[in-house]
């Protein structure tokens, strides 16, 4: 029994926290720099190739990821920034602006002229204030390739300003075919855009992002001066960023080595650079793509064949741009929903729930690869119904062990990997684990809840599952059960299980959500009492949590 996914306002996903990711699904999981380099090299050797041209050592700057300052990791702390010079940086769009900010830290004052997914980039007309900001900037970062022609045509002084044009870095310029049309009616988005043979969405190209990061860091060093503390700060941020990039490449190589292959249909080619990088296969019919690119309407036959592809078993993903959803894109989106197919939604501008460009690309890559079920990266069509038998047995709450200090070692281990102190993690899990039910016993379709030695039992029927989409990009699955018959006091009317699984299989532990209303219980994201088999000792549970 399948259901549409339900978006959640917060990423209070116990499965993330349990896996030691500190709830931040956009990160890759920090490791030591040496470990990152080893993972990268091993992944590359296993897969037989290194995807993209990542250079650990930049001959010009002596940039060496393996020697990142003091073993710094992703998003080098701005608190350590020392700036003799603060550089004024203006980016045409926030995709590149976020990268410039991450690389400059406190030493860069970055303004992105287009800074929201609510702004239609193809309709954008710069204001006099925008043009003034461009003219006064020390460093200007533009996409190029015809995407932000208004910025390319601005009155810039190349003798005084440094212009980072990503299209130029990639050797890609706008073609004569590049044009924007903005006419439409009430039933169409009115924002169709045709890029001809040029795909200007360069921020989705890992190669272009790498080249842009190098160029921006070089610009910071040149403007601030070699040997200055501003240049040193930029270098430190660059080292941290390069470590992240190495992990990103290693993740992709690992997926390739494991034989992960994806095929997709796209309503437009917005993330084709990234999908090509992942080794995905574009199954979108050429005739459909050509019709959309030429601002025409696909024929009835072309539309039907594309709809059939989306609904069929040969395609894993439908890629949509929510900023460009015309009637045909909506039809494909509906077909994907009705066939329970994975929909990958990618905006053009950096969305509000993402802070860095590489973090965003990593999230989209994980969504497309969908090969890490434990941490919430899976295909919609792989989710299957389950029965109460998967949870049968006698289970003990871990909450008493948190309260008596037995989980102190677990919280300390999380603090070493995550973003909070051991005390903060303890407080977080006190909210998450909290329950007065010390034991749950499940047999057949009956669940017994034990409080202070008193048992309360009710009968439950399976009521399908719900896929929850979290703000940070990953997902979870709740398996739903509803009480039937007389429900005694102390027994919830609704229980929902989450245990990392998305298909039939015996649970080794679970998080349980309970309440009187199915929809209200689905909204619960802060309290997720967690249970392990009663046969496990306290020390064994600690070992399980440390390994989890």
TrEMBL record:
Protein origin, superkingdom: Bacteria
Cross-referenced InterPro entries: Bact_metal-bind_prot9 (IPR050492), Calycin (IPR012674), Lipoprotein_PsaA-like (IPR006128), ZinT_dom (IPR015304), ZnuA-like (IPR006127)
Primary subcellular site in the record, as a coarse category: other
This protein's UniProt keywords: Membrane, Metal-binding, Signal, Transmembrane, Transmembrane helix, Transport, Zinc
Transmembrane segments: 33-57
Record flagged with keyword Lyase: no
GO biological process: cell adhesion; metal ion transport
Ranges of Polar residues composition bias in the record: 1-25
Record-linked PANTHER family: HIGH-AFFINITY ZINC UPTAKE SYSTEM PROTEIN ZNUA-RELATED, METAL-BINDING PROTEIN HI_0362-RELATED
Family: Belongs to the bacterial solute-binding protein 9 family.
The protein's name in its UniProt record: ABC transporter substrate-binding protein
């Amino acid at each position: 029994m399948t259901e549409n996914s339900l978006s959640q306002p917060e990423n209070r996903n116990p499965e993330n926290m349990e896996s030691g990711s500190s709830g931040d699904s956009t990160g890759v999981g920090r490791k030591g720099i040496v470990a990152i380099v080893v993972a990268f090299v091993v992944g590359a050797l296993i897969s037989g190739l290194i995807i993209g041209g990542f250079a650990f050592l930049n001959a010009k700057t002596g940039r060496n990821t393996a020697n990142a300052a003091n073993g710094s990791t992703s998003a080098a702390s701005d608190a350590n920034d020392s700036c003799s010079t603060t550089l004024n940086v203006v980016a045409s769009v926030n995709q590149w602006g976020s990268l410039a900010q991450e690389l400059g830290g406190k030493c860069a004052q970055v303004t992105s002229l287009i800074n929201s997914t609510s702004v239609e980039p193809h309709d954008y007309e710069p204001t006099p204030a925008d043009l003034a900001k461009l003219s006064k900037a020390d460093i200007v970062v533009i996409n190029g390739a015809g995407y932000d022609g208004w910025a390319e045509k601005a009155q810039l002084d190349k003798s005084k300003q440094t212009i980072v044009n990503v299209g130029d870095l990639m050797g890609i310029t706008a073609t004569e075919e590049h044009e924007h049309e903005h006419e439409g009616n009430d039933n169409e988005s009115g924002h169709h855009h045709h890029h001809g043979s040029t795909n200007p969405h360069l921020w989705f190209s890992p190669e272009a992002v790498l080249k842009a990061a190098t160029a921006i860091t070089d610009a910071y060093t040149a403007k601030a001066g070699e040997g200055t503390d501003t240049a040193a700060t930029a270098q430190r941020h660059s080292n941290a960023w390069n470590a992240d990039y190495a992990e990103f490449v290693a993740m992709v190589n690992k997926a390739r080595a494991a034989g992960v292959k994806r095929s997709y249909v796209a309503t437009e080619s917005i993330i084709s650079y990234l999908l090509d990088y992942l080794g995905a296969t574009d199954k979108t019919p050429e005739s459909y793509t050509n019709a959309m690119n030429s601002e025409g309407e696909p024929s009835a036959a072309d539309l039907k064949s594309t709809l059939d592809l989306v609904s069929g078993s040969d395609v894993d993903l439908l890629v949509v741009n929510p900023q460009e959803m015309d009637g045909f894109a909506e039809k494909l989106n509906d077909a994907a929903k009705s066939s329970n197919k994975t929909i990958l939604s990618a905006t053009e501008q950096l969305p509000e729930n993402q802070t860095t460009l590489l973090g965003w690309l990593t999230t989209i890559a994980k969504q497309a690869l969908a090969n890490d079920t434990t941490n919430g990266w899976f295909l919609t069509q792989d989710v299957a119904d389950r029965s109460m038998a998967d949870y049968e047995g006698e289970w003990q709450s871990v909450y008493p062990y948190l309260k008596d200090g037995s989980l102190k070692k677990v919280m300390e281990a999380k603090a070493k990997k995550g973003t909070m102190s051991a005390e903060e993690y303890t407080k977080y899990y006190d909210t998450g684990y909290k329950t007065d039910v010390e034991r749950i016993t499940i047999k057949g379709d009956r669940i017994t809840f034990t409080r202070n030695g008193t048992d309360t039992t009710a009968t439950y029927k399976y009521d399908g599952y719900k896929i929850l989409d979290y703000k940070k990009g990953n997902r979870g699955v709740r398996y739903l059960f509803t009480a039937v018959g007389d429900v005694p006091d102390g027994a919830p009317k609704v229980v929902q299980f989450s245990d990392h699984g998305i298909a039939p299989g015996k649970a080794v532990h679970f998080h349980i959500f309970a309440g009187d209303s199915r929809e209200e219980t689905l909204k619960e994201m802060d309290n997720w009492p967690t249970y392990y088999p009663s046969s496990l000792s306290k020390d064994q549970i600690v070992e399980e949590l440390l390994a989890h």
